[in-house]
Amino acid sequence: MVAQMIEGWNLVIGIEIHAQVNSKSKLFSSSPTDFGSKPNSQVSLIDAAMPGMLPVINKFCIEQAVKSGIGLNAKINKKSIFDRKNYFYQDLPQGYQISQYKDPIVGEGFVEIETENGQKKIGVERLHLEQDAGKSLHDQDPNFTFVDLNRSGIALMEIVSKPDMNSPEEAVEYVRKVRSILRYLGTCDGNMEQGSLRADVNVSVNKPGNELGTRCEIKNLNSFKFIHAAIVYEAKRQIKLIEQGDSVNQETRLFNTQSGETRSMRSKEDAHDYRYFPDPDLLPLTLDDDWIKGLQDSIPELPDQIKERFINEYSLSSYDANIIVSDKATSEYFEDVVKNRNPKLVTTWVTGELFSILNKKNLIIEDSPITSKQLGELVDSIENGKISNRQAKEVLEEMCESGKGALEIIDEKGLSQISDENEIESLVDNVLNSNPENVKKYKNGKDKLFGFFVGEAMKLSKGKANPKIVNDLIKKKLSQ
Amino acid sequence: MKDSYTLKSLAVLLENNKISSKEVTSEYLKNIKNGKELNCYNTISQEKALIDAEKSDERRKSQNLRSKYDGIPIGIKDLFCTKGVTTTASSKILSNFIPNYESTVTQNCDDAGLISLGKLNCDEFAMGSTNKTSFFGSVKNPWKSVNSDNELVPGGSSGGSAAAVSSDLCVASLGTDTGGSIRQPASFTGTVGLKPSYGRVSRWGIVAFASSLDQAGPITKTVEDAAILLDIISGHDEKDSTSSVNPKENYYENLNSDIKGMKIGIPKEFRSDKLPVSTQNSWDECANLLKNNGAEIVDISLPHTMSALPAYYIIAPAEASSNLARYDGVRYGLRVKGNDLIDMYEKTRSEGFGDEVKRRILIGTYVLSSGYYDAYYIKAQKIRSLIKSDYVEAFKKVDAILTPSTPSTAFEIANEPSDPVQNYLNDIFTVPVNLAGLPGISIPFANDENNLPIGLQLITNSFEEQKLLNVARNIEETINYSETPEKWWLK
Hints:
The complex is a heterodimer of chains A (480) and B (491).
Chain A: H1 2-5, E1 10-20, H2 59-71, E2 79-80, E3 83-86, E4 96-99, E5 109-115, E6 118-131, E7 135-137, E8 146-148, E9 155-161, H3 168-185, E10 197-206, E11 216-221, H4 224-243, E12 251-256, E13 261-267, E14 277-278, E15 285-286, H5 289-298, H6 303-314, H7 318-325, H8 328-338, H9 343-361, H10 372-383, H11 389-402, H12 406-413, H13 421-434, H14 436-443, H15 449-460, H16 467-478
Parallel strand pairs in A: 11-12
Antiparallel strand pairs in A: 1-9, 1-10, 2-15, 3-4, 3-14, 5-6, 6-9, 7-8, 10-11, 12-13
Helix pairs in contact in A: 3-4, 6-7, 8-10, 9-10, 10-11, 13-15, 13-16, 15-16
Chain B: H1 7-15, H2 21-34, E1 41-44, H3 46-61, E2 73-77, H4 104-111, E3 115-120, H5 159-166, E4 173-177, H6 183-189, E5 192-195, E6 215-220, H7 223-233, E7 263-267, H8 277-292, E8 296-300, H9 305-323, H10 341-352, H11 355-368, H12 374-397, E9 400-404, H13 420-424, H14 431-435, E10 440-447, E11 453-460, H15 465-479
Parallel strand pairs in B: 2-3, 2-4, 7-8, 7-9
Antiparallel strand pairs in B: 1-3, 4-6, 5-6, 5-10, 9-11, 10-11
């Protein structure tokens, strides 16, 4: 779709992901990091940059960054340096942000994404640690801006990709994948609505074979939908400019989530001179091999590995496996259900019925009204012929509404399938005996009446008879 | 006051109940009142000091002392944040700032039972070497030339700290030293000023000037007192990432004046035709004295000495330009209303900072700007490394280095050079020590022809404060310098 729209153009996309480190306290202070707390209730002397205050690195955040680096298949730098990025703003108490400039904690790495044309490797340039700023509240008073410093000093990981993506879909897949990896590692909760993970997207267009176009950066995108929409809009805008004979200005742009448009925030000429220099309050950070090794050993199974295992162990298709492992909670849920059960059936029920219920209710799997154990029981009931697939859908919906277990609902509703041959035989006999005319017609070659007999038998059983047995018996009786 | 007290002498008097903390504190508060003209104090903690002194006396009665020095009154440079006591850095921008926290160093003093008499005047944000940049006006040197009645600078930036010790407005004081701010004023006032190794003393809670160079230290009447106060204030602090985990020694207990077999280096690069004859003579005499006392005098070279000052005046302003960004009128301190955020910043910082501070912020901003960074900041860092290695090489050959503390004795307030670069030359002998992160001490050696104190500087390797104090103690013991200024302000 998008490919058509920009036919004849190359799209080049690079992404900076800002991921909040999952940590109880801030990067350089012991203040808590709980979301949604009362303004300025989580601010230490350090976060407020009182005179004489000094940053002390939170070792746990370092650990989280290194783990993330390992998850991104990246080089861990044994020596990294914290720099000051100097600029003035009301919600930046120090007058500088402590970040990493020339020597980040994590170097080059990559992630693999699924595209229309198969697997694609997206390069990671670096991952560095930095402090978040506070929040300016412009809408509280007509004359004043208020500042909330709760966020000030919270640890962020900035993950910079190489410009390796060529479509909005790839861009979204990349962010999804990074988010998924961080969530598997527990290094970022990935909550985009709360701003725990946001992306700055660099977009440029060029004609194939020509040199790269001028790029624009779109700041602060906090949903997959917005990332996609912003890239589409921006690509079209740039193509239009070039086709009109204008040129693209290198600039930073903002995405309006209401209108779906991007607008200029500042041009390259207005860019700050951040006057980076090593923070003299912090010594260079050095990591030793044993410590890194220890973290490497503690890394849990990551989506790519789990996917491979699911394909091998449960014979899942690459497509299904991909859907299941994209989210840690989903893959855990799936594994709970699939244990000692038919993987194909379980896959269908998880990715099909369960997902559609969750989607309808706008729930994430962690909040699923149906536990993995409950879904397992339902799958068992199908597998041992107690209920049909159609009945199972009904049961699932009921489970969802009432919170009751599958077996309980099957009992209550008397849904148990009749599989007893004698019982079904008497039903079939009943149908055949009551319709001697039709039996005659059938025997004279009117094959189509077979369905009529099956229908009547099922009706008689109130839909509970095992259709296969009904079929078999009718066939047998009529051929006698 | 009949005698001039020291930490050591007062501890004995207090122990023997010859005097109470309240009595001695009152005496000093009276001295402060009578010495108002010297302008040493920005804030006098009259009430609090007396209450604290009474509490100390009670502790003494109940034999529950915090240390041997419990109850002794000291002065604190107005750069240390003190809980509930105005902390201004001698700047208008912080003139209304009352911290709700206590710096590690002053907390350590409190833990030892020392009584704070108040906050001592200094150059604004510790930027200066004459004390003239203070928002609260110049401190006056207690010393005067025999040939003139004109007022002299006490040196800076810890001018109030040095002048107050010299004029008995406190027993001892705390200063900070970024490029000579303890040693230079100590030299100008006939007191002992010690800058410890970088990392020996916590910087937590001290208003930062240049983080990679700042270090707090004592200004005292004697080398013994310097050892005592260093014992109290030094040590690792987990709140300061640059604080050293090197175990500190028991400096006073281990203090001895034995220098037999030690090698003392005389760096040829510190020699200059411009050095006053009396200073040169003192330097030579002191070398002879050490030789007579059993040390070996060795000529050494510190080849990059002349590049130290330019490197310092790039690195220190660079760090300062960033460290002072937090004084923006948003959260505390002065705020001058503006039409918008930028206007408020401009007005607040224009009005809040003095000229010297602005000059250094501008220099620092310039040298960190893209396009200039490599030519200035990176180059200065390279020079800094070369200076460090000069000293590393030197300390392979010698135990300590002896130099003058300053290129001149105290000069008249009215004669302060109007060219800032001329003024920066005051620190020419002290700055390399900060760049190299070494400990240095200035001790009074003699008075010049105008009866003004001449200070000499000793330098040792990092964390060799004990050796530094021992050599200084040897000199002190031998010369027994006992000059005191005539108390003209009492007339």
